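I had to read the description of the data format several times before I understood it. For illustration, here is how one protein appears when written out as sequence plus structure tokens:
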Amino acid sequence: MSELTSQTVVKEMRAPVLIVGGGACGLSLSIFLSSHGVEHLLVERHPTTSHLPKAHYLNQRTMEVFRQHGLADELYAVGTPMQNMRKVRWRTTLGGDGPLDAKTFHEMDAFGGGALAETYARDSACPSSNYPQLRLEPLLRRRAQASPLATILFGHELTAISQTDSGIRATAVGLDDGTTLQITADFAVAADGGKRVGPLLGNGMSGISGLGRIVTSHIKADLSAWWDENCLITWFINPESSGALGSGAMVPMGPTWGSGSEEWVIHFGFPPGQEDLLDEEGVLPHLRELLNLPDLDIEVLKVSHWELEAVVAERYQIGNVFFAGDAAHRHPPTTGLGLNTAVQDAHNLAWKLGAVLNGRAGRALLDTYESERQPVGQRNVDWAMFTALNHQVLDAGMGFSPLQSAAQRRANFEAYFADTPMGASRRARPLRLSTRSAGSFKPTIWSSVLPIRPGPSCQMILRLRSPTPLDFTTKRLLAQATDCRMCGSHAAIGACPRTISAGAGAVSSCCRAVTQTGGMPPIRYQPRLGCQYATSRSVTRPNIRKESQRGPG
């Protein structure tokens, strides 16, 4: 391996492929290119792999890809055993002995465990796995550096990139000693999370940003007395919070799995005006309150904060530069598709670069990367947004709303857990939501927004998807038109009132904005496609089609 040190002074470097970014996507691409016999150079501005927990779930397709490149067995050996990741559950708190403490709302099989084992086994010979990104990336780096075809440069920041008649010209600077590298390559791949290459080449991101702020706390604590041995993710909903997204979720980080995990990560929504939650000292009281373990000995390893967004790159290829991973798509972590889509981007691109550079295919093969992967990125962004909003459906199905006062929320919690016929009926709702749908507790009827380029009286259309046939009443409700609450334009289609009452769907929409219920702020959508539906104030019934996508769990 020819990894350079900060003492190595290099003025000119040449490689067939330049990879910008040394996260999970870039390091996976390095491994895959080596498998295909392609020499390459990777530059990463950070001195080490990520120290943030980030993603953790590895779905079946990703494990198939890793098996192809000799990584799967090593990951199965160190990752979470299936018996420790077979369930997801919703709780009020972990501890406490009060009437509303340590109550379980609902739990379900997930990730190929329990009742899902046979279904997942039919899909693939490779089970899904779980291995946090802060542990995965060092493993990938070691494997990447073991190849004589790879030159891996951490601590080197790309400062410029341009295209020439013969390929790529780029400049990178060593952050330790200021060494300037002038790099020439046939092709470049941006796997830098959209931080550098996209802005330098003018590749914008289309979609929704500013959906909310999330605080992630990476901690050490002994939770063996409270954690369910079979559970991978626990969502918290309690009277002091504003639903699952506000209370947050907790995941073991290993390296021991199950209740014996030494490290944990907790994600929760960032309440406005509580900037003290952004540091290690300020977050501790909140964590103890959330878990209802006031005397728990917690060591905070890292606190980070990030914004929820749902965006896709306008281009996946600009000349000889390709975009992959977070540089091509970013979305909420629900269903765990971010890291998995990134690895699969790298897999798609690596064999094509190998075929072209080794003379087995013409350059036109590389043009299929965008046409194949961009629709997947858009679909997965839509899917992640949908499943994120389903947490509001679940909250509302249990009778909880972010608009309720603390007293109203507590009364609702008491009614939910009451030993009465009404309490039993309310407790049955989450089960109906999860069992009548495919994937991550998806309701039978759902809607997403299909953005339309503005035109004369042009509307944004609510595209309906359903894993089961729509009944006549639902179709009639879906065809009703309403006025947009934001701009007054007449929408081509309204949302099903049952979806509105659940606080999850759009109330009405137009070419400029869409208003959502459930206490969510207005969300601005960037138009993407040409108008093909409504004109003037006429009601246009859309082409309602059935579509089923099964995410993890």
Q: What stands out?
A: Residues 1-6, 437-553 have pLDDT under 50 and may be disordered. The first strand starts at residue 12 and ends at 20. DSSP finds 14 helices and 22 strands in the chain. The two ends are 40 Å apart (CA to CA).
